[in-house]
Amino acid sequence: MTSGNRQRGFTLLEVIVALAVIAFALLAAVSAVSGNTRNATGLQQRTYAHWVAMNQMAELHASRRWPSTRTTRGSSLMARHEWYWSMKVSTTPDKNVRRVDITVRADEDDESPLVTLTGFVGRQ
């Protein structure tokens, strides 16, 4: 072989470095997709939980009854899932207005609620 007839190409080290760069890029892409999926699932759960809380508040307003100060618990089916809610009615400085706090959990034994909705009911 003469010096003008040298073969050109990648060395083994260059190929390994290129594969390592591609592997890290793919890992970052998979991690980003996984994070987006988790966020979408969490957002969907919080949306359903918020709808459950809004339905409970709407039922309270539609009943047109003056709520007593107490905490009630129940469950509602939405999107083929049983959601567990708690409604706490408390007094306010205005004797004709009651405060209503509704919390919703995905499971009955969850420590923290997915959603807390606060509203007010006036005496009619």
Key traits:
124 residues; alpha+beta; Pantoate--beta-alanine Ligase, Chain: A,domain 2; four-stranded antiparallel beta sheet; 4 strands; rod-shaped
Care to describe what's here?
The radius of gyration is 29 Å and the shape is rod-shaped. The chain has one domain (10-122): GSPII I/J protein-like (Pantoate--beta-alanine Ligase, Chain: A,domain 2, 2-Layer Sandwich). The protein has 124 residues and is of the alpha+beta class. Strands 1-2-3-4 form a four-stranded antiparallel β-sheet, covered by helices on one side. The longest helix has 52 residues, at 12-63. 42% of the residues lie in helices and 29% in strands. Strand 1 and strand 2 form a beta hairpin.
Give the arrangement of secondary structure elements.
Elements (H helix, E strand, L loop, with lengths): L11 H52 L7 E8 L2 E11 L5 E9 L9 E8 L2
Antiparallel strand pairs: 1-2, 2-3, 3-4
Quick synopsis:
The chain is α+β, with helices and mostly antiparallel strands. It is 42% helix and 29% strand.
How many domain modules? 1
Strand runs, count: 4
| Individual helix count | 1
- Largest sheet descriptor: 4 strands, antiparallel
Top-tier CATH class? Alpha Beta
The percent of residues in helical segments reads 40-55%
The CATH architecture can be named as: 2-Layer Sandwich
